[in-house]
Write a sequence for this structure.
């Protein structure tokens, strides 16, 4: 039986929702948070709080409430996040800013709020939900991957910075998971991906075809929650855990740039380079 407190961001749906349920069943004191707490009504957790990771006041009020009620934050799970789709050229600065604000600055804001408390406790564990997209970049996913590359960097640096204070930082790298993620990405990208005048029209069509097929093999969020629980309970957690990534994709991670480009060109039917002298 565990009475450790776990604060999770983005619990309205998907991985965060499942994790809150799972850890409660495992007797953790779960603080489930969401931008709109009414989305948490079906969760039976120790505490539900409103928390928008883009809003420092909302973060301060949630984390202060947790410390006031439970005296400590043992585990922080930085889960909130979403994706944009589209060629780098076609996604606006404003859209990218907003995504970084959630996926990257949101994680940093949560760390700023929680690490001083963990340092005072001389113990704590931070679990960052990254993505296999933070290792392997597919065309059309560049800006989302950029946010998850950033999470790789923040996790690698803070793992060593915080170790002397008894705080461990762990990165989870999921593959395709069944949640609201794909629908949200689709909603954000609708105008870009369906623009008949886009110079990337053929690429987008092929991308949608390929990813629709890939998404048919999505894993359930439970697979990620299970691994997060392992990472929470391991006496010496690994730096990173890859979850729900097929063997073929793991192999691609180790290919050199040229081979990987050949593979993506074939998969997405990207035309050969135009000769600059033409
Ligand atoms: P999801 O079902 O769409 O859940 C995303 C969660 O993030 C929702 O609860 C959403 O809340 C929340 N969120 C978005 N903006 C927020 C903000 N400003 N403040 C607080 N919460 C916010 O997708 P998911 O698959 O569970 O995604 C969870 C994490 O896994 C994300 O970091 C994602 O990048 C990562 N991931 C997912 C996949 C996948 O294939 N599903 C693969 C690799 C990594 P609202 O309901 O309020 O929007």
């Amino acid at each position: 039986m565990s009475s450790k407190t776990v604060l999770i961001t983005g619990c309205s749906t998907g991985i965060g929702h499942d994790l809150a349920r799972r850890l409660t069943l495992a007797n953790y004191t779960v603080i489930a948070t969401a931008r709109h707490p009414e989305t948490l009504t079906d969760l039976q957790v120790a505490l539900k709080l409103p928390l928008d990771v883009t809003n420092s006041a909302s973060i301060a009020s949630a984390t202060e409430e947790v410390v006031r009620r439970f005296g400590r934050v043992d585990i922080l799970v930085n889960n909130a996040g979403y994706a944009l789709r589209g060629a780098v050229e076609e996604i606006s600065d404003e859209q990218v800013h907003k995504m970084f604000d959630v996926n990257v600055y949101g994680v940093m804001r949560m760390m700023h709020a929680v690490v001083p408390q963990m340092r005072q406790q001389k113990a704590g564990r931070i679990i960052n939900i990254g993505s296999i997209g933070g290792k392997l970049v597919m065309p059309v996913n560049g800006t989302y991957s950029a946010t998850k590359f950033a999470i790789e960097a923040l996790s690698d640096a803070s793992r060593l910075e915080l170790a002397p204070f008894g705080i461990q930082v762990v990165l989870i790298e999921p593959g395709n998971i069944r949640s609201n993620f794909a629908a949200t990405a689709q909603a954000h990208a609708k105008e870009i991906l369906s623009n008949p005048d886009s110079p990337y029209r053929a690429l987008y069509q092929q991308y949608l075809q390929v990813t629709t097929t890939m998404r048919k093999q999505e894993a359930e969020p439970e697979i990620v929650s299970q691994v997060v629980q392992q990472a929470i309970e391991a006496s010496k957690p690994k730096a990173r855990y890859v979850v729900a990534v097929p063997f073929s994709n793991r192999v691609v991670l180790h290919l050199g740039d040229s081979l990987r480009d050949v593979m993506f060109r074939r998969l997405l039917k990207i035309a050969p380079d135009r000769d600059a002298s033409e």
In short: The first helix runs from residue 14 to 25. The first strand starts at residue 5 and ends at 8. The pocket of NAP is lined by residues 9-10, 12-16, 34-36, 39, 52-54, 79-82, 102, 129, 131, 174, 176-177, 179-181, 184 (CB under 6 Å). The CA atoms of residues 206 and 269 lie 7 Å apart.
